[in-house]
Structures are given as C-alpha cells and as structure tokens.
Amino acid sequence: MRIPGIAAALTAVAVPLCLASGASRVVHASPDAHAGQTDGGASPTHPATAGPTWSRDLAPVFYRNCTTCHHPGGAGPFSLLDYDDAKRRGPQILTVTQSRYMPPWLPEPGYGDFADVRRLSDADRDLIKRWVNAGMPQGDPSIAPAPPRYDATWQLGKPDLILTAARSFSLPAGGTDVFRNLILPYPLNETHYIRALEIRPSAPRVVHHANILIDRTASLRSQHPNDWRNGIPGMELLMDAGNRFDPDSHFLFWKPDTPALVEPDGMPLRLDPGNDLVLNIHLKPSGKPETISAQIGLYFTSGPPKHFPMLLQLDRDDALDIPPGDNHFVVEDSLTLPVDVDVLGVYPHAHYLGRDLEGWAITPEGKKKWLVWIRNWDIDRQSVYHYREPVFLPRGSVLHMRYTYDNSAANVHNPVSPPVRVRAGNRSTDEMSHLWLQVLPVNTPPHSPDPRLLLEEAWMRNRLRKMPNDRVSLYNLAAALAGQNKFAGAETVYEQELKLDPKDARTLTALGAALEGAGQWQDAEARYHDAIDAAGNDPSGACDARFDLSNLELRHQDAKDAESDFRAQLAACPEDAEVHAGLGATLSNEGDTNSAAAEFLRALALDAQNVSALEGLGAIEADGGQNDEAIRHLGAAVRLDASSANAHEQLARAYAQSGQSENALAELRKAALLKPDDPLPHSVLSQLLAATGALDQAIDEQRAALRLSGNDADGWNNLGVIEVRAGRIDAARADFEHALRLAPDHAQARANLARLNARQ
Ligand code: HEC
C-alpha cells in the first residue's frame, strides 16, 4: 500500500529567504588564502617595538576576519587587501569594529558555542584601536604576509556533477525584491549521495541569500509543465514529498562568503533519479538589468547516510499581530522532545521588526541550556549556525523560543514609516517568527519506530494547538501516525482534515491507506473510489488512489483484472515506478517471471529505492539461484524498509542457498519479530537450525511455530523428525501421533511412526 507523502508545504516554509541588502559575488579563497595568518584569537604583539604596524600585526587580522568579503568583487563594498585600502578607511574601521558591526556576527558569545565564529576577539579589537590611534603605521612591508588570493573557481575543486538552470531570466534594474525558484532536475539514472554542494549564481551581486530545496517527486515541475524553465516566482512552495517519510534534514543555506555547503561525515544527502533541486533565490535589483542563471556543483561520496537528522521548527507566526508603535511585542513557543536528540545547528528567522531572538532548552532536570541569543537581530545578517559540539538534549526536554519585535519608528530597520500594523506573511514587510533546529535523534531503542516520526508527531501536534485547522499539520500528523502503524489515530485526523476539504484526493487516498492498514479494506476501497471521483478530470491526481485500489483488488478480490488495471494506469501515470513494480508483482504471481523482472527493472530505473521492486526482483533472483544478485537487491530492500517480513524471509533464503547460514538465521529472526503471529518464520528457522545441527534450538523454534498454528499436521511431523535426530524418541512418537490425529492419512507421519516402532 502506498501512503501519499508527507506534504512538503513545510519544506517551503522552511528556511525562507528573506530580504537583505548589499551586493555580493561568489568569489572564493584559494587554498593558500590564509597563508601568513596567525593562529588563535589574538595577533602577536611585540612589546619590543613601539606599537602595532600593518605589516606585522594588522594584515593577519584583516586577512583572517575581513577579506573573505572585502576583496575586489566580494560581498563587502570595498577591498581591505592592501595597506592603502585599510588606511583610507581607518577611522570607519575603528568605529565598526568597536561597535561590533563588523565582521557581521549576530549571536551573543556564551549563549551557544558555534563553529566558524566570525566575531573579533577583544585582543584584535584592541589592536585595531591602538593602530588607528597611532596613525596607522605601515611598518616594514617586506615582513607583511602575502595577501590571500580569491578567484571565481569552484571552491572545493571540480564537482562530480554540475547542474545548470535550463534558462536564464532577466531581473529589472529597479523595483521590489524578486523571489525566484529555479528548477534544476537531477539528470542521472542512479542514486548518488552528496557530501557537499556549491551554488554559483551567474550574477551573485544581486543575490542576497539562496537555499536549496529537494523536490523528491518533481512536483513543482509538474505543477508548471510549460513555464518551469523560466523559474517559478514566489516564496511559498507546495511540494509533494512522495510516498516515503523523508523529512528535510539539512540546512542548504547559501551566503555570499560561504558558497560551499559541506555535510558532516555520515550524513550525506541522497539524490534519486527523478528528484529536482529547487534553488530558491532572493534577488535585489541593483540599478542595472541583470541576467540571472545559476549552477549547482555536486560532490559525491560512496556511502549512504549512517545518521538521519531532521529539521524541526518552533514558530509563532499565528500570534504575530504587531500594533504600530509597539516596541516590545513578544511571542513565545515551546515544544517537548519525545526522543533524545543531538542539536547540530540552529537558524533563527524574523524579518525587519525582530529585535531580540532567544532560543533555549530546559532539560527534565530543570537545567537551562542556551541554543542561541541574538540581541540585535538584523535580517541582512541572518545565518545558519552550526554548533562546535552537538548539544545533547534528553527526551522530555522542552525547547523554547521567545522573540521580541519592535514596530516603533525608532527601529532603524522598520521598512514602513510611519509604522503600520504588521502580521505574519512572506513579503518582507510582513513578519515571521521561526526557530529552526537541525536535530539528530540519538539513543534510539531497538525495534522502536523511526524517531523522526515521533518528532514529526510532536511538532505537528504543537502546530495544531496553535492552529487547529492547519491542513498541512493535520495531514502530516496523520501520516506520522500511520507511519507508526497507529491507524485508528491516523483515520481520525484524516477525517478531521476532510471536514475542511471533503474533495481532497490526496487525503482521501491516505485515509484509504490507513483504513487498509487497520484491516478495514471495504471502507478503504470506498475511499479510493472517492479519491478517484474527487480527482475528476485530473487523471494524474488519482494515480495513487488507482494504484492502491488495484493492489487492494489484487489482495482481496479477483486478481485476474489486476494486470490490465496496472497497464491502464501506466497510460495515465507512465513514469510511476510503483505502478511498474505493481505490474511486476502481478506478472510474478501469474508465473511470468521474465516480464515481471523487466517491470521491476523499469521501476528501479525510475526509482532506485523502490522497495517493492527490489523485493520482487530479489525474490525472482533467489528462485533462479542468482544468490549474489538476490542478496544485493533484497539487502537494499531491507535497509530501506526494515519492516517487510517477506523481504527478510527472501533474503534469508538467498543467504541459506549461498551457504551463509548465520546471516540467514539473523534475517529469519527479524522476520519472526515482525510477524509475531506468523508461524512460518519459526518453522523455516527451525529447518535451518536443524540443518546446521543446532537441534535444541530447532526444536524450540518448531514449538514456537506450533504454538501459533497447533493444527498443522506437517508441523508436528517436522517436530518429530528433529526430535528423533536429537534422541528424544518418546517426544517424537507423541508428536507423530499428534500429526496423525490431526490428519489420519498423513503418509509421512505414518511412515515415521512405523520406522520408530521398528527401531525398538
Ligand atoms: C561576511 C562578510 C563580511 C565580513 C567578514 C566583513 N565585512 Fe565589512 N562589510 C560587509 C558588507 C556586506 C558591508 C556593506 C553593507 C553593510 O554595511 O552591511 C560591509 C561594510 C563595512 C564597512 C563600511 C560600514 C559603513 O558604515 O558603511 C566597513 C568599515 C567594514 N565593512 C569593515 C570590515 C572589517 C574591518 C572587517 C573585518 C574585521 C569586515 N568588515 C568584515 C561584509 C563583511
């Protein structure tokens, strides 16, 4: 069954791009850029000589703290590479460094320990002060370090893959800010894991910030089939996350002075065939018309992710209604963590009226841990902050945010004069109140549901307390419940959402899937029909419902029509991996393994992670004795979805056939845990254990199987056979007799009993 995706409307709200001024250009330091810099916060001072000089003391400070932006073509408005550059601006530099206006860095020290802190040390500020006050002496130019070189090549070397926006578009010389979403389809036919990516807009001077969203189902492109190549305007995107719970996990946030995003070890991003990268850019007209295009460079790594972080949001947009003149408008939000997490990064976000932004956590013991504090918010300097060391928060900790807004005329950032009432929204003159956290669930107990589903559930319940009719939250909450097999709860929430829009095909389909999960397949069938009706003359809107309906018919009714059903669906949804996989399963049922394998391969070409296709293909391969291929495909299937008992059983078979009995046993035990009511994994386990000579364990497993299906004459006979081998003759005799009571003409049991009696 497929449960249509967690709606990605949240993706769109995620890390929205906001206004900022100032020109920027992507220019990168070459590896030797920092040649000559000193370590540590303070520069060396030489008490032997009279005072600090540019050549000896100041150049290293500027090269370390200023020139990444202040070089020709950089984000800063002028260069600070040479003595003359710096001397000309001496007094201004003194002012902006004493006030900490430069370098731009918002978080208060001591309230979150961040990596890549861009704050000047007190020693460096003091050095600048003494140098400016001493008349800015140059000193001996021959001892000055070589200035760093900045060039416009890829910062991390040549990317493994470069994506280029299909078409450029023109940004007018003037007017308001422009938000554009450039769609860059991922063109490869296989999955890759991305350890780093770099964004290169063609006219970086007019791009203030950018971020990348991953559209797993290319939904944005299909919503705009004719014009997507020109880029889609707007900030708010609704994307369909597909059928897999695959929440946004990384801050893909671009700033002019840090264009390359390197993901931590073990946490690469996954890109599958059919994914799109959406480059969400915020442009500020510069006074002359510009042609905008962009490239994204991707750097691959071989291994799949080992850790699965998730982005989590606190927000109080619903409470934003700031009267004009109010200089102390406060909103708060809090969220209790249902699991242990490591907090990896934080992204506070407000627009121009935000002034004081606080984020912290209270642990269950009542201890306060600061996550971030920004005392003088400035949207132009917004950034994602990564912690130097992850901040551990045990389950039960409460995350808090408190944002204070200033809508008075005294706020120099206030975009409107005189001030007006301001509410939440996506325009720069609207406000926002978001605190995003990147969290990594840790200490997850074995056999518990995906901890991200629990986080999603807690997050959505929190949103619904504030906005009871928020459809995205209702949908996502229901999907998170269904993902934990809490079908009854999911049903209730989907019903609630349908009260708001009874004709929503996606929700109807998801409700059907939840009903099917709960075993109410007739009700499920009715909901799938409702979904197909609701989709009306948009046939692709009913792909999921038709697919689920065919599968349901295949399982519960006449299977004969299933093949033609799936073929009919391919007409409306030709690129649908699941439909190919479903057709493959039907053909496989009908015994047409060659055609079945071909359909599974087609499904995998469209979606290398399609679990049903991996499972179906692997089973065919195991049947044909292609054990290595079977192990590869079935192994991938259970890694992607550890909840399919059938996949574990098939994998066990392939392992057993290739003589790897330890692995086979391990897979069978997993299958037995997943199907506590199913005797089959236990009896197969028993056979395997018996084959390896572990007779006592084999007997235990067969007994476990018979506890679940006591009327299985074969099972009693098999138990007897193992008992004979273990020398437990009396028990064996009793069990053969038991088999014969259940099935008086059980030939094997009769023969076994006769043989036993003959031995005596
Ligand atoms: C992350 C990029 C960045 C870094 C690092 C940076 N600056 Fe700037 N700087 C800017 C930008 C952008 C502006 C112009 C817009 C603004 O004022 O924010 C600017 C403006 C200035 C100004 C003019 C201020 C005014 O009032 O017009 C001075 C002086 C300055 N920077 C000095 C420095 C010094 C000194 C350092 C290092 C100690 C530094 N900057 C580090 C980006 C940077």
Describe the structure.
By secondary structure, this protein is of the alpha+beta class. The protein has 5 domains: 165 residues, Sandwich (Jelly Rolls), CATH 2.60.120; 123 residues, no CATH class; 90 residues, Tetratricopeptide repeat domain (Serine Threonine Protein Phosphatase 5, Tetratricopeptide repeat); 117 residues, Serine Threonine Protein Phosphatase 5, Tetratricopeptide repeat; 84 residues, Tetratricopeptide repeat domain (Serine Threonine Protein Phosphatase 5, Tetratricopeptide repeat), CATH 1.25.40. 39% of the residues lie in helices and 18% in strands. Strands 3, 6, 10, 11 and 14 form a 5-stranded antiparallel beta sheet that branches. The protein has a 5-stranded antiparallel beta sheet with strand order 8-5-12-7-9. It has a 4-stranded antiparallel beta sheet with strand order 15-24-18-21, with helices on one face. α9 runs antiparallel to α10 and α15 packs antiparallel against α16. The chain starts with 8 loop residues before the first helix and ends with a helix. The N terminus is likely disordered. Heme C binds next to α4.
